[in-house]
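Sequence in, structure out. Go.
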Amino acid sequence: MLTLKTDTSPRIYDSPAALCAHARASMTGDDTLSKSANFTALVVEDEVLIAFTMLDCLNDLGAAEVVVAHDLATALQHLAERQFDVAVVDWILGKQTSDPIVQAMNDVGRLVVIATGLHAEAVPEPIRERNTIIYKPFQIETFNEAIVGSLSGRCG
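Output:
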């Protein structure tokens, strides 16, 4: 069971998919969501529950394919094999940062959503300026807006 805190009272959802469905319905401009449909995404997150929540939300936003990696080496292998329209990365993966993933995506003109529990200053300034940072724990609406914005090239 998941709880989403709102300004009024907590809402309780029985699954990440139900929470994502509510978030999607609450976002304004369904036209924006339809423009982002059929994209490919790479999720790099070492916490399994967070990774699967992101996966559910990306699928709900219309992702054609989502690839999940739980470590830097696997993520870099996926990037070597193909391109993705967007990536969502945990900034700290064990004792490493996601810097090589972000650089690889930016090198091919793609933006990245960086999810972190750290302060923004933990991410180097050039990466902060170009990409979007969301802070854990994040609200699903924030996640969805960051993805849609990154896909449209408006973030960063």
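Check: The CA atoms of residues 45 and 70 lie 5 Å apart. The mean pLDDT is 82.
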